[in-house]
Amino acid sequence: MTQKEALERFVNLVRSRDASRTMTALIVDSPWLPGYAGVPTMDFLFDSSAWLDVYSRAQRDLDGAVLIPGAWVELGMAAEPTGFGSPVSWNPAGPPDLRAHPAGLAGLAQMDPPDPEKDGLMPVILRQYERLAPAMRARGFPPRIAGARGPLAVASHLLGITDFLMATQLERDACLALLDRTTENCIAWLKAQLKRMDDPAGVLVLDDLVGMLGPEDAEAIAFPLIKRVFDAFPGLVHIFHNDTPNDSGYGGLAGCGVDVFNFSHETDIVAARAKVGPDIVLMGNLPPLALLVRGTPDESRAATEALLGRLSAAGPVLVSPGGGVSPGTKLENLQAGTSRPASGRSRRG
């Protein structure tokens, strides 16, 4: 099955909200892929041939699973923060590291939102999509889902997590001004990627900082911004990743336009269903480290069977780690676990 075919199955399942069907959905990116393929991280990030070969191999090895957001041109967390001018440290053993922006909150709150076509590393990524799209189509994984870090996540990279969380309490007005700019950048960045895609299917927003707020602050600060982002993309599938182990704000997601929610393995999947309501497709929630990194294929298979056995209470569900595919995840665990059909009949959509 090509990724194009897997993505069509994914979109149909999400739109139907059919609780009796499932398939595997995996967020895969630069923390896992280079190690899985035995390719140096810098080669994966900057050698187009290596990048295409790694994604082609992943497509073959994970046949039947949909890769979210697909073959993803990304440079770790660096795209959006570099548009604001954040310094980057390149790391040969992993994705680049970001340092706090020298302007601080006061300076950032006065900046114009960056232009994805001109600022930071975003134009480099857009050009890669333009260059690689023909080869991606030829190999069966045309780009169709745009991905971006959410408004709070980008602000936390600009300031540092602790300083950002403190600012939500102590410098609320300046923090909201910065978040207005990161939200505008998130929307513009997703739109710029979608312009390079022939048949856009969805947008992926990753924002773990939403889960680091208390329920009142999530309601007042985070959810209006997430809704603002998704409202900018009517007609597309809206995928939201937040694997912070805090389920106190799950109830607010239904009003944000979320179609698919990838959440922490530390929240029981039936409990998550009760909190998010009936209309969001849950994407999870096998333990990414204890099971998929450190476990065995038999353990992964058993855990997936147990998860599938709860579909009647938790569906609709996409089988996935409770978060992205972590560095060091064993391919054989993914193959044995997350692509495992339910006993007696196929449940892969």
Distance between the termini: 13 Å
Our Rg estimate from Cα atoms comes to: 19 Å
Rough shape? Answer: globular
Q: What CATH architecture do you see?
A: Alpha-Beta Barrel
Unreliable sequence segments: 340-349
Share in helix: 40-55%
CATH topology-level fold name: TIM Barrel
Strand order, sheet with most strands: 5-6-7-8-9-10
Total strand count, please? Answer: 10
Major sheet attributes:
6 strands, parallel
Mean pLDDT: 94
Number of domains: 1
Structural class, from helix and strand content?
alpha/beta
In terms of DSSP E residues, the strand content is 5-15%
The CATH class is Alpha Beta
Number of helical segments? 15
Task: Provide the succession of SSEs.
Answer: HEHHHEHEEHHEHHHEHEEHEHHEH
What attributes characterize this protein structure?
single chain; alpha/beta; TIM Barrel; 6-stranded parallel β-sheet; 10 strands; disordered C terminus
